[in-house]
Amino acid sequence: MSLTATLLRVGLSRGLIELRQSFSGTELIGQLFWPVATLTAIHLLRDSSYGASGFTLGTLALPGTLGMFIALGALLVIQYLTADREDGTLLRAKATPNGISGYFIGKLVTASGSTLAYLAILLIPGLFIVDGLDVASVGSWLTLTWVLLLGLVATQSIGAMLGALISTPRGAGFVSIPVLGLVAISGVFYPITALPEWLQWTAQAFPFYWLSLGMRSALLPDSAASVELGESWRHVETICVLGAWAALGLIAAPMVLRRMARRESGSAVAERRDKALQRIG
Amino acid sequence: MTRVALDVEGLRMRYGTNDVLHGVTFQARRGEVLALLGPNGAGKTTTIEILEGFRMRSAGRVEVLGTDPAHSDERWRARVGVVLQSWRDHGKWRVRELLGHLGSYYADYSTELIRRPWNPDELIAAVGLTEHTDKKINTLSGGQRRRLDVAIGIVGRPELLFLDEPTAGLDPQARREFHDLVLHLAEKQGTTIVLTTHDLHEAEKLADRILILNAGRIVADGTAQELAQQIAGKDEVRWTYGGQRFIHQPSASTPFVFDLFQRYGAAVANLEVRVSSLEDTYLSLVQQTESHPSRATGMNSSKENQEEAAR
Q1: How far is B245 from chain A (nearest CA, A)?
Q2: Per the structure, how many domains does chain A have?
Q3: ipTM
Q4: Which residue range(s) make up the domain with A207?
């Protein structure tokens, strides 16, 4: 028990230190870029009304973008894992007692903390930009909380799994292309009902759509459900799909991560460094 | 407690069909500084990675602090320190912040005899980084970075410390400072140290005992003096007498020359004594391997050769 307590404490402090690092100095500009770009888009959409729903596109899109940023946390985890293997951070963790566990706890804290920061950066100014959000009721925040927690577990464990399978930061860059494609078809900015049916089904297999839907269900009045598929918030389906991804991630990620950690050695790190240098030179 | 820190017997490593280690056997006593000396591709890194528990072996028996590293636990990990040459990690962290953080993993493994971890400020002073305590790690120079790597390696007060090619890429000044640091550690802390190097002078300067590894086999094992006797060639004495040139390789050159003068006196001319050094022998060994890698090692295309050649 004391070991678990130590690990949680050490992992948490590690996560918070790296979180502070990633939101200070020049890093901060990179961190703010996408949330601010998203807010700009919402600002532009704030007056375009969507059909006869009585809602503006900006109001419909803001909750969806919150869901999108939760899911994009997976990309953060992938980037961390690939970069940390290349520079030897992971090997350092392996050379430290319980270091690998502390490392992963720390990464999840950093990635979750970054995600929460993005949500705050979006939501707080967002409330002043768009009208019609339902943020006064306890129910809204309860829904937001469970969607957020389930979403973090699902997307970060999947991210950890992919990050372990992809061996280089370059590879991590390639993954973001299909991910951005998924964002485009997941009804984040514009209701999914406008898309052809086969794209709707594709989108519904992945967490982006359900996280956006869940966030809309939390922050929009119930009357807004009329623009959704089935004219419902579909909470049961949301729990099932996100839960399935979370289960897949929680089962597969530790196995893949253990395999990745086992293969780490000084010569493996040196080899990757040499390859990286060759690319530059 | 046993006096043997490291016990390796018949260690073999094979990548595909290439044998990189052919039955390596050696021991290290507690408190000893042991150098694994050898040319690139000799199998030094493979050996040390097996001992560190980072690589699985093909065959043989290995015990590090009484435990097989292939089946080690976190308690064992807390007793072992590792310093590599290629670490660039934690660049955004500050020196003290990182040492404090990494040290906290060791607190649960503190014992009556060994208090873990090392206090970060004392540790920073011990490796001479006090001025850089609050610097970001990616702003340190190469030598400072290596000192930090050593500090991280010993933050848990390891009983056994591995240093893999610790001075590769350092300038002469940084290299000398690093040597002093290692000697200080061995002397003051009584830490058992195993280091790999391809530099004979470094091995002579740092190690109590040197193992020469060549083509996956140990070809010599002993103190620098013992090695000089074991593998160094004979001295060479040249002189002229009565217009004739003589070359002789006596087993002991000083008594031979003394005898020469007693017999022939001032008639001995152009006397030259070339004392054979360990360096000559070692260099010829390395040269053989590097100019004919396939003949000398039989594993030209092995993974390790490629890796080491790339460094």
Answers
A1: 53
A2: 1
A3: 0.86
A4: 2-23+32-264
